[in-house]
Amino acid sequence: MTHYRIAWMPGDGIGHDVMNATRIVLDKLALDAEYIPADIGWEFWCSEGDPLPQRTIDIMKDCDCALFGAITSKPKQEADAELSPDLQSRGLVYRSPIVRLRQLFDLYVNLRPCKAYPGNPLNYREGIDLVVFRENTEDLYSGVEFHPLPLDLRAALEAHSPGMKAFKEDSSEDIAISCRVVTRRGSRRIVRKAFEYAQQHGYKAVTLVEKPNVIRETSGLITREARKIAADEFPTIPLWEANVDAMMMWLIKNPLDYGVMVTTNMFGDILSDLAAQLVGGLGFASSGNIGDDFAVFEPTHGSAPKYAGQNKVNPIATFLAAKLMLDWLSEKEKADALEHAIAGVIAEGKTRTYDMGGSHTSTQMAEAVADRI
Ligand code: NAI
Ligand code: MG
């Protein structure tokens, strides 16, 4: 049996509630692990000017992986206003600690399984089993953004698109640009992970969700690479292609027709929220941010400030994140035992948090799951 070191990062708000509940379940599984607390979130932005302090990164580097709750983040003006007074004039800029973690540890896969556990009153339809592979480091979230528009960039854009009126007429102060960066390497590795997963878990196809007919270069690049990988490396698994807008309709109409889906960062963000809602919403949506050497597992919900500290929200999303973590650690037996226990509690229908129409606490949900392990 391996001994693990797991960075334990509750974050803000209900991050603490769901992580406390998850600890009950992990303790029952008797995973041989140390959980090392690490600071992340709004609190540390306000008090230290950094929501992801260097000491946290150091802890993570010394761990096998991390389990993360949720953080609060606020727009620019609030971020500046809530910064401790002695830090205010230093020109500090808030940067999303989650995005930073993904870039720092090159966590290029965002894995989001969305399964309808039988008996969940929130299932849109029984039998749904979707798995989203979202590229996690590029695209519109790479942080390559400009406002006001710099002069040299403006000149280049004007030369490129003489028909675009804004570059001629609007002041640079009135134009903002975010770059959609898609690379061949980034495209190939996410598509390959999706196919490997489909192969390992017996899914009949992989659906690429993009928009190459309009966004011809970026969506075009990942589409061309996906076709090559499908043909060269996975000839027995068909590659289906769907436009992202149409996919939103197909998933509502025929959710049982789909399984593994792969896409770029922002489309994946949207697609996975829709997929999650089909199987119960934020109380059930977990994700893994996975690289070649490190991974961070989390529920996809945020810090839900209005419920913070009430021990009320559904911790199942975080249990499922812990299940993904166990899978990634190759603790298959424990991962299966945990999923089986979660499914058992959902099917029995006696213990339900408020989102499921019940009134049980996060702790009671944890105890019900722990009892079945
Ligand atoms: P949120 O996900 O925190 O909550 C929205 C609503 O969803 C809640 O008010 C609650 O009704 C429901 N909800 C969320 N988690 C639930 C759970 N486990 N069980 C039952 N119901 C649940 O999103 P919101 O309100 O837009 O953002 C709050 C803060 O969280 C913001 O500061 C935002 O920036 C941050 N955020 C952080 C994320 C992260 O840490 N990964 C992701 C999304 C938002
Ligand atoms: Mg999201």
Task: Outline the structure in words.
- With about 375 residues, the protein is an alpha/beta fold.
- It folds into three domains: about 1-110 and about 285-373, Isopropylmalate Dehydrogenase (3-Layer(aba) Sandwich), CATH 3.40.718.10; about 130-140 and about 180-280, Rossmann fold, CATH 3.40.50; about 145-180, no CATH class.
- It has 14 helices and twelve strands.
- The protein has helices spanning about 15-30, 40-50, 55-60, 75-80, 95-105, 150-160, 165-170, 185-200, 220-235, 245-255, 265-280, 315-330, 330-350, 360-370; strands at about 5-10, 35, 65-70, 110-115, 130-135, 145, 175-180, 205-210, 240-245, 260-265, 285-290, 295-300.
- A ten-stranded mixed beta sheet has the order 2-1-3-12-11-4-5-10-8-9, sandwiched between helices.
- β1 (about 5-10), α1 and β2 form a beta-alpha-beta unit.
- The protein starts with a strand and ends with a helix.
- The site of magnesium ion has 3 residues, from α11.
CATH superfamily of the largest domain: Isopropylmalate Dehydrogenase
Name the shape in a single word: globular
Uncertain spans, ≥5 residues at pLDDT below 50? Answer: none
Query: How many angstroms separate the termini?
Result: 19 Å
In CATH, the architecture of the largest domain is 3-Layer(aba) Sandwich
Q: Which ligands are bound?
A: 1,4-dihydronicotinamide adenine dinucleotide, magnesium ion
N-to-C order of helices and strands: EHEHHEHHEEEHHEHEHEHEHEEHHH
Q: How many domains in all?
A: 3
SSE blueprint and pairings:
Elements: E1 4-11, H1 14-29, E2 33-37, H2 42-48, H3 54-61, E3 65-70, H4 76-82, H5 97-104, E4 109-115, E5 129-135, E6 145-146, H6 151-160, H7 165-169, E7 177-178, H8 184-201, E8 206-210, H9 218-233, E9 239-243, H10 244-253, E10 260-263, H11 265-278, E11 286-290, E12 295-299, H12 316-328, H13 332-348, H14 362-371
Parallel strand pairs: 1-2, 1-3, 3-12, 5-10, 8-9, 8-10
Antiparallel strand pairs: 4-5, 4-11, 6-7, 11-12
Helix pairs in contact: 1-12, 1-14, 8-9, 10-11, 12-13, 13-14
The structure holds 1,4-dihydronicotinamide adenine dinucleotide and magnesium ion.
Residues 269, 273, 300 line the site of magnesium ion.
